[in-house]
Fold these 2 entries.
Entry 1:
Amino acid sequence: MNSLLTQEVPLTWYLLLSAVLFALGVVGFLIKRNLITVFMSIELMLNAVNLSFVTFAHQWHQVKGQIFVFFVMMVAAAEAAVGLAIIIAVFRARATLAVDRIDLMKL
Amino acid sequence: MHLILFIVFAGFCLAGAINLLLQTHPINSALSLIVVMTSLAVLYLLLGAEFLAAAQVIVYAGAIMVLFTFVVMLLNAGREERTLGSRSARTVGFPAVVAILAVLATVILKTQGLGTAGLSENITSTEELSTVLFTKLLLPFEVTSVLILIAILGAVALARHGDGNGERTGGK
C-alpha cells in the first residue's frame, strides 16, 4: 500500500492517453452527424494535444510548453465563438444541424 | 497517490470521451465533454501546471462549454439521426485513425529517456509563468488579445446576419 502511495507515473502513460483522446476525437469527427457534436470532437482533439504539451513541459522543465497551451486555449476560445456563430448562421439558412443535409458544396 | 489519481482521472477522461461518441443528444455530449475537460484539469495539476489547471476549468469547462450548451439550447438541437456516414469516412477515415494511433503509440512507446511524474515535484508557479509571458512573449500576448477582439466582432457579425431590422441589406 505504501508503494502504491509513492509510486510515480511514467510520462509515457500521459502521452498515450493524449494519443487515445486525439484518436477518439477524430472518430467522433467522422461518426457524429450533428454539427455541434462534430465541433465538440474538434475541441476534444485540441484538449488531447494540450495534454501532450503539458507533459513535455514537465519532461524538460520548460515554462514555454505551458505558455503554448495558454495560447492554444485563447485561440480555442476565439475559434469556439466564431464557429458557433457560423453554426447559428448555417442553422438560419438551412434550418437543420444534420451534416448530411448541409451538402451545398458537395460534388 | 499520484498513480491512483492518474488512473482515476484518466479513466474519467476516457469514459467521458467515449460517452461523447455514444450519446445521441448534443446536450449529453456537451456534459461528457465537460467531464473530460475537468479531469484534464486534474491531470494538468498532477503534471505541475497549476495555472493551466485553473485556466482549463475557467476557460474550457466554464466559458467555452457554456457557449456550447447555450447554442444547443438556442437552436433546440434534438437527437441526431444515425446515418451510416459517407463512404469516404468509412474507407479512408477509420483506417487512417487506426494508422495515426498505431504510429503515435509506437513512437511514444519506443521513446527512451522519458521521465516520470510524481506528486508535488517541480510545480510551475503562476509567477514563473507570467514572468516569461509578460517579458519575453509580450508581443504574442498582445496580438492574441487583438485576435480575441476580432473573433468577438466576427461572431457578432455572423450571428446577427439577416436580423430583420430593415436597415441591413444582407440576408433575405
Entry 2:
Amino acid sequence: MTASTETGGVGRHDWERKTTSRTGAGVVDDPYPRFAELRPINGGVHDSSFFAMFGMGDPTSEAWKDAQRFCTLSYAATEHVLRENNLFTNAGIRRMTQHAFGPVSLMGSDDPEHRQFRLLVQPAFGKKAMGMWQSWVKPRLDELIDGFVAKGRADLYFEYCSQFPVFVIAMTLGVARDDLDQFQHWAGLMQIGAAPAAEARAARLEVEDYMRAVIAERRRAPRDDLISLLIESEITEGDQRQRITEEQVLGLVCNLVPAGVGTTFRSLGIVLVTLMQRPELLARLYEDRSLVPAVVDEVLRWNGPVLTSPFRLVAEDTEIAGVKIPKGSIIEPGIAAANRDPAQFENPDAFDPFRPVKPTLSFSYGPHFCVGGQVARMELRAALNALLDRLPNLRFDPDEPEPQLTGLLYRMPTGVPAAWG
Amino acid sequence: MDSFDHPSGLRVRIDRARCVCSETCASLAPQTFETDEQGLVRLLDGGSDPEAAIRTAVAACPVQAISIETPGVPS
C-alpha cells in the first residue's frame, strides 16, 4: 500500500474526487501485494472486509453494520462463493443497494425471481441487440476524437474514456443530449459505496422520474433503442406469457446506469495507461489489430475496474477451505485477487496478452454473471481501435507527470495525458 | 437440439434453463456453441473443435449449463 495524498482521488469535478476517494482512489494505489501476502493463509478466506484489510472505513457497510465479515482472495474460494448462490445469496446486495437501485433490481434478487427477470432482459444485451448498441458507439467515438485530434495532445481519460459509455447508455435509454452531464452526475452517485445512502437515493429518484417520462413516450412511439426493447420484453413458458413491469424496467435502469458507466470507462483508461507504459506492445498493436481482444481481456484480468462482486449474505452455517463461516455473515467474492491467484494463472502479476486463453472472474461467475459483459467488451475493443485508427504514435505527454493506477473498490488511472503524431 | 455427439464419442448436452449468456463456451469452442436471439446457448453441428476445447468449455461455464457423457458409459 502506498499513500499519495497529493492526488486525493481522481476525477475532473470535486464531487467525482470525493466519491472516488471514498472507495480508495488516492489512498490505495496497488492492493495486489497485500492480496499475495494473505492469499496463502486459510485457503484464501480472510476474516475482514476488503476496506478493513487496508485500514479504511467501509463506505458500503451501513446496511450490515453488525455482520461478521469475510472476503475471498483465492480463485477456488471466490468461484465457490459465486457458484453456490443459494448459500451465498444476493440478499446481501439487496439491503446494501436498495437506496440506489430501488426495490426491484437484477443484482439484488435471488433465483427463482432473479432468473425470470434475467430471462426478460438478457436478449437486450446479446447478439440480437449488438447492432443497436454499436450504432451509438462508433459515431460517438469519432465525434470525441474529432474534438481533440488536431491539438496533438489531450488527457484521454477525461476527454475520451469518461465521455463515451455514459453517452451510449444515456442515448439507448432515450436521455436528451442536453441532460448528459446531469445524467452522468446521477450515475456517479448511484455507484455502490460512492455516496451516502441519502444522496444515492435522491439520485435514483431523479433517474426514475426522468425515465418514467421517456417510457411513456416510447410506449406511444417506439424507437430502435434499449428502452423500447426493454418495455416490450416478455417471456413465454408453456401457455403463460410474462410481460416486464414498469417497476422492473426502472429497477434495471437504476442498476445498469452505475454498473455500466464507471466500469467501462475506467477499464478503458487502464487499458490505455497499460499500453502506453509498453511502447513495443503498442507498436505491435497498431500493426496487428487481431491482438485487441486479448489485450482487453488481459487488462481486465490483470487490473480490472472492480475489486469484488458485491456482498453475499451467508444463508446457512458453512465452511470454505476449512474456515467456518456462520449464517448471517457477509462475504465479499474478491474477483480481482482471484484473477492474480498463482494456482490459476502462471506468473499472475505479469501483464501478458499472449498467455494461454483461460477463463477469468472479471465479469463474475454464477447466475449473476455480468449481463452487460458482451456489450462492455464490444465497447472497449471499439474504443481502442478508434484511437489506433486516428492517433498515430500514441505516447504519454512528456510535459505531464506520468499517470498511475489507483483505487480499491474501483480501480482507475489518475489520468491518461497523451500526445500523438 | 439439446445434445450433440462429438466425433471423439463424447455426447455434449446443454441446459438452456441455466444459461447466462457469458459466451464463455462460444469463445472456447466456437464450432460447437453459439448464442441465439434469446441470448441463450445453442449447439452447432460442426464438431471440428478438439475434444480438449469442449472439456475446457464444460469446466469454464459459469453456471454449469454444459455437461458431457460417453454414451453407454455411466457418467
